[in-house]
Amino acid sequence: MWALCFKESLVAIWQIPIELVPNQWVEKRGLDTMALYDEEGYHSTSCAWANNQPTKDLNEVFDKILTKSDTSDDEVIYWGSDKKHDISAWFEGEIVVSIGFRIDLRESINELLISFVEVANKLDCMLFITGQHVLIKPNVFELKKYILKSNAAKFVQNPIEFLNELGDEQ
User: Fold this and answer.
1) E strand map for the chain
2) In whole angstroms, what separates CA 139 from the centre of its chain?
3) What's 34's DSSP letter?
4) The whole model's pTM is what?
């Protein structure tokens, strides 16, 4: 299976990962996402969450979107399914270090996108489209624009052409 690393789980090629970044952090740092990547190119939003913890109960917010999943890891809470759409909230102790979504583009996503945008607004966050190194305000139309540019969308639209283009880049 074609997949990318997303925290300690995998992102299928047909999923687009999106993370939340607190507006307070963006107001201080601007829209430059370079601080969210390490020298090796891996992203982490822990620096953004360090002094900007959510003021809403994450269970209350996310239980309305997807069903909570069982996990034996006390550092993460999952909602949904890693095979389709999911939400993850990662912790170090009691401190949130990351909140992210994986959206399966093989499925109908309009209602889900509306819910994610509403949640981002409730949590006073921007949307970080990790694969495109961009932060956007929570807006369904803007989010769809970036989703359509994603590798996941290109793969779902035409898998053979997408894989051939990957081969051409080598």
Assistant:
1) 3-6, 9-12, 15-22, 68-69, 76-80, 86-92, 95-104, 125-129, 134-136
2) 15
3) G
4) 0.86
